[in-house]
Amino acid sequence: MQSLRLGDLELGNRVVMAPMTRNRAHADGVASDEMVAYYAQRASAGLIVAEGTWPSVTGQAYCRQPGIATPEQVAAWRRVTDAVHANGGLIVLQLMHAGRIGSRHVKPPGIETVAPSAIRAAGEVFTDAAGLQPFDEPRALSTAEVQAVVREHAAAADNARAAGFDGVELHGTSGYLPMQFLCSGTNHRSDDYGGSTPKRARFMVACLAAMADAIGSARVGLRLNPGNTYNDTQDDDPAASHAELMRQAAGLGLAYLHVMRAPTPAIDAFALAREHFGGRLILNDGFDAASAEQALADGAGDAVSFARHYIGNPDLVRRFREGLPLARFDRKTLYTPGPRGYSDYPPA
Questions:
Q1: What's the fold here for domain 4-333?
Q2: Active-site residue, selected from the candidate residues 38, 176, 342, 345
Q3: Taking Cα atoms as reference points, which of 93, 84, 202, 64 lies closest to residue 143?
Q4: Residue ranges of the domains in the chain?
Q5: Of 35, 200, 245, 322, which one is least surrounded by beta carbons within 10 A?
Q6: Predicted TM-score (pTM) of this structure
Q7: How far is the C-alpha of 194 from the C-alpha of 222, rounded, in Å?
């Protein structure tokens, strides 16, 4: 429960709330009243990483997913950050461009689905308008368009700070656009953003550098999960690809790397991050209070983030500190509209 400094972020404890898609925004990507309550309730975390939020509507993946591109979205997020700060918390926003993970039934009319290469992802996405739908066939971005998307990330970081966020985190996993550029199975480009591993890492590093130029590198983080194949993402050598990315990102002076445990025992993601990134690490996935304390004591990382435990336990820090039992959550209400199963879980 010790305090911790991550770049310009002063955490009161080392319990981090991980980002979780919960689909509670309005249809236009504006944060709702329920979101204000939900995040304010969890402000005792040393740091909240708010859910994956699109930097431009082209990057929207899901119905009722928030954005940070319009004045209305910025103003609504300001209500969230004000409520968290009033309760003594810190909150950063995760920027998430979905790339090929999307559907025309989710985005407004006329908005394309784009990707590094014109390769459709296997799988389906739920849409409010038409139920389950296959992912769209994406259009490959031109080199100039790639650079425009990088600038969108800088603008989104600026908007996040205008909305009162203490920083931003780039979503670099789960098969979304940055990971699509990194992985050999989804990036078949022949320009400066494809081909060799260093070139495939270039887009993600360019986004981080642009975000850092906009708001300062000490307020920018990155989330990675080496070996993740979610959303039909494949890579010939995920450990080598992520090691290269970490080495390039290490020179940017980021606040932290938020690294998830690898889904395969062949990769030790935490050791990979310590070797190739070298900066502050937030560890994620599968921890409870005891294993988190042990990981920190062993020097595996500097903080530990929790997702599932935060769904039904808004006062998770207190429950950990006092050894109180954890509440269970209702899986049926993870992504449904309204406060039920979202902002109505009571403290202990």
A1: TIM Barrel (3.20.20)
A2: 176
A3: 202
A4: 4-333
A5: 322
A6: 0.98
A7: 21
